[in-house]
Write a structure and sequence with these properties.
Elements (H helix, E strand, L loop, with lengths): L1 H11 L5 H21 L29 H7 L2 H4 L5 H13 L3 H5 L6 E3 L5 E7 L4 E6 L2 H18 L23 H14 L14 H14 L4 H8 L4 H23 L19 H14 L6 E2 L19 E2 L5 H20 L3 H27 L7
Antiparallel strand pairs: 1-2, 2-3, 4-5
């Protein structure tokens, strides 16, 4: 145990990452356990063991998704045309659209694309990490890239199709050798330098092929694709791997929600107070999303939790729980015009009770619209997410 306690700070001082240190200690513990089980080291004392507190905490890295500003440059048709070969250009599109690991993508067979029962293209490939064949649907872009790559190879090889969809370019006469990961990475770095890939500050930036996988996962979660579907599509062995994308989405959505809460007004046109640091902010965030699922309104949002029944069906503009933001201004303006026409018609027909009901809506809209216009003019408003 004394030797192990001397080894722990020595290992920590080497500047290794937490995962590497954790792997080293797990291997050492396994070695000591096997030595005891099989009597490989006679006289090994029982104190020669590692305890749970000796291991560093496992920190899961956040997804390294690519910013959409940068992705727009990478997905540009003009920039893709700057790649040094059609094969590489088609491979980049497939990586972006499918999220395949680069080793799985370069090992795709020529006939990897199949169709489902309604004729939609799918990709059949070997998920090397899970050692299992997998089928995923293809986007129109990915299907077009695969078809273009097949045509490109047939034009070069004649009528006989090569075994691989993305064979390496050199020293490969029978086209049975795929691109190596290192060569793809090198060619993509050169391409990114050629097109001047940069971030929003104008600084040069480099993107790895594996970041396309993180980007696809993040995009799908942000688009509301269920987590278990993303897990299936990306071929993750456990939901915990996919959950990382969901955690990032939650953080992004929460920031948007805090911004939205700073631009809410009620039916009287009064700004609603909100403190993002208040203990109740988390509960309000949950209530907002539950309410949006239960009641999708064309002109705002219901501030009432869905567990409680609504006493104002079809009367949101007279309900104290109604909230709205500047993005709904066009709907409110149309509704005000329509309400005034309804008032004129009801008044001409002597329907005075109906006129009174419409007047309440008109009054509230006349308060809501100027308040939202002021927020819009100041630029201090967000969008609910």
């Amino acid at each position: 145990r004394e030797a192990l306690e001397a080894y722990l700070p020595w290992l920590a001082a080497r500047g290794l990452g937490g995962s590497t240190r954790l792997d080293d200690l797990v291997n050492l513990r396994t070695f000591l356990e096997h030595c005891r089980r099989h009597a490989w080291l006679a006289g090994l004392p029982p104190t020669a063991t590692l305890y749970s507190e000796d291991f560093p905490a496992r920190v899961e890295p956040l997804p390294r998704f690519v910013d959409e500003f940068v992705m727009a440059q990478l997905e540009s048709a003009d920039n893709l045309a700057c790649l040094r070969s059609p094969t590489l250009a088609n491979l980049v599109v497939v990586l972006i659209e499918t999220g395949l690991r680069i080793g799985d993508a370069t090992a795709l067979p020529f006939d990897a694309a199949v169709t489902d029962s309604v004729g939609w293209p799918c990709l059949r490939f070997l998920n090397s990490k899970m050692a299992a064949e997998q089928l995923i649907p293809l986007s129109a872009k990915a299907a077009a890239a695969i078809s273009a790559q097949q045509d490109h190879l047939l034009a070069r090889c004649g009528e006989e199709a090569p075994p691989l969809l993305f064979p390496r370019r050199h020293a490969n006469p029978d086209r049975t050798k795929p691109f190596t990961i290192a060569s793809v990475q090198r060619l993509l770095r050169r391409w990114q330098a050629d097109i001047g890939l940069h971030d929003q500050t104008g600084q040069p930036i480099r993107v790895t092929p594996h970041q396309f996988r993180h980007t696809l996962g993040t995009r799908m979660i942000n688009q509301g694709v269920p987590q278990h579907v993303v897990q299936k599509l990306l071929g993750h062995a456990s939901p915990e791997m996919t959950a990382t994308y969901a955690h990032m989405h939650d953080s992004t959505v929460r920031e948007a929600f805090d911004l939205y809460c700073q631009s809410r007004v009620n039916i009287a046109g009064e700004a609603l107070p909100y403190d993002a640091g208040a203990p109740t902010a988390g509960a309000e965030w949950i209530k907002h999303h539950l309410a949006r699922i239960a009641d999708a309104l064309p002109n705002g949002f219901c501030g009432r939790p869905p567990q409680q029944e609504c006493p104002h069906p079809n009367a949101c503009l007279t309900c104290p729980d109604f909230q709205t933001t500047p993005e709904h201004l066009p709907v409110h303006r149309q509704q005000l015009d329509a309400t005034r026409r309804l008032i004129a018609t009801a008044d001409a027909n002597g329907q005075f009770r109906l006129v009174a009901n419409h007047r309440k809506v008109e009054t509230n809209l006349e308060k809501i619209i100027p308040a939202l216009e002021a927020l819009e003019a100041s630029g201090d408003h967000g969008h609910a997410s």
